Amino acid sequence: MLMEASGVGGRIAVDMLPKPEEVDILQWLKAYQGCGFVVTCESSATPSVISEFSRHGLEAAACGSVVAERKLTVTSSGANATLFDFSRDTLGCRPPAKNMNVPKCT
Q: pTM of the predicted model, to two decimals?
């Protein structure tokens, strides 16, 4: 949703996602999504963002990047797949069109 609303895409390295060692990655990916955070920042800020999560007892990792191509691509064990192509797929978070005629409130 973050990517679609921002008009960008992303690449996520599934193998880099923090998870409990004993949990299967597919089970982990289907777990309740409200238990996780997706944060974007400049790469130079990554260490301090991870440190802040750690300071509060939360595990965090750099596991992806924002890209101009409007697709969400995941990689795992050398393979990759496009999950969403925002030029045709929608999660309902499209940014408003820049040329919309929006009535002004009076």
A: 0.74
Number of folded domains that form the chain = 1
What burial letters (b/e) apply to 4-33, b meaning 16+ CB within 10 Å?
A: beeebbbbbbbeebebeeeeeeeeeeeeee
Task: State the CATH number of the domain containing residue 19.
Answer: 3.90.650.10
Residue whose token pair is 């009535």? 103
Nearest-Å Rg of the Cα atoms of the chain is 17
- What is the spatial distance between Cα 53 and Cα 11, in angstroms, rounded to a whole number? 22
DSSP code, position 85: E
For 32-49, how does the pLDDT look when each residue is reduced to its tens digit (9 = 90+)? Answer: 666 778 888 999 999 999
